[in-house]
Design brief:
Muramoyl-pentapeptide Carboxypeptidase, domain 2; 20% strand
């Protein structure tokens, strides 16, 4: 089974369409991205199989601004990824990460029970500081601590 790549984590349709260079600028960000692959994405892929659908990985500052990301987003340091797995409930992915992997922040975002390909898992991993193990659910403007398997239709 092939590991996800740093190239996959840097790909962005928005960057391409807006002419933004989203290349990784330094070794530290590459190290963070590789840690994210090794400690989060590859173990998830091994467990579930299926095709990873990475919607957002590394974001340079101009791309992050274009996407409306937080100024202190871990995407900008290569420590965060938003993803799902085709035809896999993101709740199941989030539970696997929560229960079996080390992570800094885990957010299940915009899940519905009627469409397994809707929503995504945001997860970050830090190799520099202890990981906080913060777990949240966000559906629209509603935010909950922990994983909440609620409807958002």
């Amino acid at each position: 089974m092939k590991k996800p790549t740093i190239t996959q984590l840097c790909y962005s349709d928005t960057a391409l369409s807006c002419g933004i260079d989203n290349a990784v600028p330094d070794k530290n960000i590459k190290t963070n991205l590789q840690a994210l692959i090794d400690h989060i994405l590859f173990p998830v892929k091994q467990h579930f199989g299926g095709q990873l659908d990475i919607t957002s990985g590394y974001r340079c500052a101009p791309l992050n601004e274009k996407l409306g990301g937080a100024q202190n987003s871990q995407h900008c340091t290569g420590q965060a990824v938003d993803f799902g797995i085709i035809d896999t409930d993101i709740y199941d992915i989030a539970v696997f990460i929560r229960d079996r992997l080390d992570f800094d922040q885990l957010i299940m975002e915009n899940r519905t029970s009627t469409d397994k390909n809707k929503g995504w898992v945001h997860v970050s991993y830090s190799c520099d500081t202890p990981n906080r193990k913060q777990v949240l659910t966000i559906n629209g403007t509603t935010r909950h601590d922990g994983l909440v398997k609620e409807e958002n239709t």
